[in-house]
Design a protein that fits this description.
about 525 residues; 7 strands; about 45% helix; alpha/beta; globular; single chain
Length: about 525
């Protein structure tokens, strides 16, 4: 951090020197504010890129930029607090207006009455005139508690019959942890990306000795209990007429040699809210030890409809039977031109981005409208733009070297043109596959958790937990509250009514989340 500099004695400066000092301070503040804004923009851009093969390096870069941003903003706050009150307001950067704190948070009222009992000027009686109210946000650390389960025994005075209530079911048979603690461990691992050894250290600070192996037993036991619910999510997702599909590599510890191998997590998202549907969104994850095309074929055996996905060759066998139709992703096309525009300042790439942006502008207008209305608007407004773009692509190829990166990007788009156009003819389809990429964001952030102990079991557990947590988030639920409620009820819940425990059926209050928007 920059060492704070002290101001000169202002009383010794003449008017011109004071004016020059204020101008200099203002320029420095503007420069620092600009640096902060540029860093924020860079972090946002990098976060959109954390899905390719270089994502591990990007994660590290983002973390470093976030730390740099924290230091700059902390230094800015320190300067603001230490700035002389007499300096002009322009010397201190204005902060954005802060909204009120959520009304649903519990509130404690502290009333600070004047210590004086009479008027300090005349000694008269003081009467209440009004009050000023301000609020501060406080944090109460999470705490452990022990629930003692007492089951009194009653005996009959006539026949010595003993009566006692049966022991209540626990989420994990003979387990020490209650449903709230189990939910907290699961969400901390799979949503907050805290490995179990780090959780163990955190709990130790609270005076609770929970070994990593104990936490691992709880994760495994919870996964086993929640399997029927994951199966219900899978069945619901595969009943859709349109799915978003994608996959991401995850490193897995190979048995025997201590090295890592590359496995895959596949995601399938059902979300028709952009086309005006009121059916609940959901996401189902599946794990496989490699990326062979047989895995998505097995996952989607019962699916009938359209799959929105990238151009991965392993998906091709899905389309051979005619039961599944392919719809391509314009975001993949756009990304190729965006990278070229950034790296080479290519005018053709920049124009391609502008043309594709017009297509996205139409999509923004029709988001949430009924499918037929979307189809008609796309036919009238998007199709002419697409026909013009196709002709321009072919014309531009004549001006480019066949080996250029821009030519490769254009050939990619032209080679997939028929499936890129498919969204224009079906109002239920989306222009891109961003729904699946958003679902994989949690995996990209938590990849360091994916070093499994010599087997693929950890990957399968992760897929199950991501299915439950991701579906809860899509439906606007706090995943920890959701899992806690499920683990409280599931032991006594009839298996043939497991659908009642799905996120959209369980009846919990919604919270605002990016995923649910």
């Amino acid at each position: 951090m920059t060492t704070p500099r002290t101001l000169p004695d202002l009383k010794t400066l003449d008017r011109d020197s004071l004016r020059a000092l204020v101008v200099k301070q203002h320029a420095e503040l503007e420069s620092r504010d600009g640096e902060i804004e540029n860093l924020k923009l860079l972090v946002v851009k990098l976060k959109r890129m954390t899905f390719g093969p270089s994502s591990e390096k990007l994660d590290s870069t983002i973390a470093q930029l976030e730390l740099q941003l924290e230091d700059l903003e902390a230094a800015q706050a320190a300067r603001r607090l230490s700035a002389p009150q007499s300096l002009p307001s322009t010397a201190v950067a204005a902060k954005p207006a802060r909204g009120p704190l959520p009304a649903e948070l519990p509130r404690e009222i502290e009333t600070h009455m004047p210590k004086l009992e009479a008027c300090p000027d005349c000694g008269g009686t003081l009467h209440r005139l009004g009050e000023d109210v301000s609020e501060t946000l406080e944090y109460v650390p999470a705490r452990f508690k022990v629930i003692r389960i007492v089951r009194p025994k009653l005996s009959c005075s006539e026949c010595d019959r003993i009566v006692q209530e049966p022991a209540p079911h626990r989420p994990i048979d003979r387990g020490l942890a209650g449903p709230g603690l189990l939910a907290h461990v699961l969400v901390a691992k799979y949503s907050d990306h805290l490995p179990l050894y780090r959780q163990s250290e955190i709990y130790q600070r609270e005076g609770i000795e929970l070994e990593r192996s104990t936490l691992a037993d709880w994760v495994g036991g919870s996964s086993r209990v929640l399997e029927p619910l994951v199966g219900a999510i899978q069945r619901y997702v595969l009943r859709a007429k349109k799915l978003h599909g994608d996959d991401v590599p995850v490193p897995v510890l190979a048995p025997g040699n201590g090295k890592t191998k590359t496995a895959r997590l596949w995601t399938y998202v059902r979300d028709d809210r952009p086309s005006g549907s009121d059916e609940a969104p959901a996401v189902w994850f599946a794990y496989s030890p490699d990326r062979k095309g047989e895995h998505p074929a097995n996952h989607l055996t019962s699916f009938r409809g359209t799959l929105q996905a990238d151009g991965f060759a392993g998906f091709n066998r899905l389309y051979e039977t005619g039961n599944i139709h392919e719809a391509a992703c314009w975001a993949h096309v756009r990304r190729k031109f965006h990278d070229l525009a950034e790296a080479h300042q290519s005018p053709i790439a920049r124009e391609a981005l502008q043309r594709i942006a017009q297509l996205y502008g139409i999509e923004k207008e029709i988001r949430g409208r009924p499918p037929e209305e979307r189809r008609q608007i796309r036919k009238a407004r998007a199709r002419p733009l697409l026909d013009s773009l196709s002709a321009w692509f072919k014309e531009s190829l004549g001006k480019l070297s066949r080996k250029s990166d821009v030519s490769a990007a254009i050939h990619y788009a032209i080679g997939r043109w028929s499936v890129l156009m498919r969204y224009c003819d079906d109002g239920t389809l989306e222009i891109d596959n961003n729904a699946a990429e958003r679902a994989l964001r949690a995996v990209a952030l938590g990849r360091k958790n994916y070093l499994f102990a010599g087997s693929n079991a950890g990957g399968e557990r992760a897929a199950a937990m991501y299915s439950l947590i991701g579906s809860a988030k899509l439906n606007g639920l706090d995943p920890e509250a959701y899992l806690s409620t499920v683990l409280t009820r599931i032991a006594d819940h009839p298996i043939n009514r497991i659908d009642q425990l799905l996120p959209w059926n369980i009846g919990l209050p919604k919270i605002h989340t990016t995923e649910s928007s």
